[in-house]
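User: Fold this; C-alpha cells only.

Assistant: Input:
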Amino acid sequence: MGRSSTPGEGTRPRVRHAGQLGWDDGLYEDDKAGAPAPDGSGDGDAARRGASHGGGRRGRGGKRKRSRILRWTALALAVLILGTAAAGYLWYEHLNGNLRKGHRSAGNSAAKKTAPNAAGQTPLNILMIGSDSRNTKANLKLGGSKSSVGAPPLADVQMLLHVSADRKNASVVSIPRDTRVDIPACEDPDNGKKYPATNTLINETLGRGGPGCTLDTWEKLTGVYIDHWMMVDFAGVVDMADAVGGADVCVKQNVNDVPKPNVPGGSGLRLTAGTHKVKGKQALQWLRTRHAFESDFGRSKAQHMYMNSVIRELKDQDAFSDTGRLMGLAETATKSLQVSEEIGTVKKLFDLGMQLKGVPMDKMNMLTMPRITDDQDENHVLPKPGAADKLWALIRDDQSLDPKDRAKNKKKKETGPAAGAPASIGVSVVNGTAADGQAPTGNRAGGVRDLLRAKGFTEAATSTDPGSALTTELTYPKSSGAQGRSDALSIAKAMSMPSSVVKEAPDGDTLTLTVGSDWRTGTTFPKAAKDDSDPLEGTEAVNGAKAGCMDVYWPYRQM
C-alpha cells in the first residue's frame, strides 16, 4: 500500500514542483515585455511616453494576463483539492466495500450491558473467532483435506477481548475448542434455518447459526455482554501477518510439528531454538501448532504470545498514528475480517483500534479458561466450577485480572458508611428468570421478597416491571453513592450472596434485586463450588510486557 493512488487509476506520481500541478509556465513569458530594459530606457519618462503612444494598452494587457494567471491557479488548486477529496471518498468506500458483515446475535443474546462508570464510559467486549473453514481454494491449500470442503465450519479459536471502561487495562480469555457447554437455540440469519438448544462442544456453534450463535453461547456461559464479534479464516491470518510485517515468537527447543506414529496431523511448523520473526504461512503454522506444544492449552498460550507480539510490533511501528501504515493495514484487514454489522465501517474499526492504543502492555493479561476434564469424555473439558465463575464475575464487573489491581480496588470498596437498619432499607424485587430463553419461574419475585422480609428487610416489595438477567444482580442507584452500596452489601450478606452481585446503576431511585436465571428455585442463593485459587493460576497466563518462550513437547524437538 505505500503508493498514492486510487484503485483502478494507476499510480499517481509525487508532486515535486508547480509545473506538475498543470500550471503553464508560458503564461509568464509576456511579463518580460514590461520589465525595465538593461539600458535604463524603462524609466518613468519612457513609460509615460509609451502611454501617450498607446503603451497603456500593453500595460492593461499585463494586468489581464496576471488576472488570467490567478484564475488558472485557482482553477488548478480547486481541481486538485476536489480530485483528492473524491479519491479519498472512493478509497473509503472501497475499504467499506471490502468488509463482510453479519448479524451480531443469532437470536438469543441475553446478557445485560454493563452500566457506565462515573465518567460515562463502558467496557468494550469483542469476541474474536478463528474459523477452520476449507470452503475456499486459499483455505484448503493452507490446511485440511478435500473431504472437509462444504462441511459446516468450526470455531476452533475463540477469544474474548475485554477492554476496561477507563481503557487502562485489557484482558483476553480463550475457551478451548473442545469445551462442552450449553448452546442456546440459534437461527442462521443467512438462510433462516433454526437450531434447537443443545449441549455439545463450543466449536460447533459456528455451524449452528454463524458467529452470532457463538456470541450467544458465550453470553449464556459467562453472563458477559459482548459488544461485537470479528472472525478470520486461514487465508486471512496469513494476509494479516504479512501486512503487519511479522511478529517475534520464541521456542526453548527446536520444533518440528509433523505427523508421528499414531498421531496424524501437524501444522508443519519448523523452527530452531530461539526467537524468530514469523509471518505469512509460518505465522499460521505457529497459531495452529497443537501437538508440539502438547495440547490445545499450549496452543492457546502460543496464540496469546503471538497476539502480544503483534501489538508490540504495531506500537513500535507507530502504526496507530502513521497514516500510510494505517491505510495498508486497513486494506488487508477489511479483506481478511468478517465483522458484526454494527462495526461494519472502516471508521468504526479504526475507532476500535484506538481503544487499545493507550493500554500499557503490562496491563494486558491473556489466559485460557480454568477447566476440568469432562466426565463424559476425557478428551473434552468443562469450565472449572468456582474458578471459572470467579473469572466471568471479574470481567462482568470490569475488574483487572492483575491481582495487585484487584487488591487495591477491594480496599477502596470496603471503606464506606455503615449500612442502615434492615427495616429502613427499601428494595424492589424483579423476576428476571426468563433470560436463558426458558419460561420465567412463576411468582419468583414474590418468593424472594418473602425471604427478604424474613431477614428483617420489611420494606421489600415486588416490581411489576419485567426483568431479564442471566445472573442475579443487586443494583443501587448512582445517586445514593457510598450509602447505597453499603445498604446493598448488607442485603447481599444477609442472603448469602457474593459481593460481586452488587452493582451501581446509573438510573433508578431504589435498590433493585433482579433474580436471574441462575436462581430459578430454592430458598438459598446457589453457591459456586469452593475454590480459593486466583483465576490466573493454572491457566497458561501471559502478560503483555513479557515476551516469553514456548516449551516444545519432546517428541517434536528432532529437526
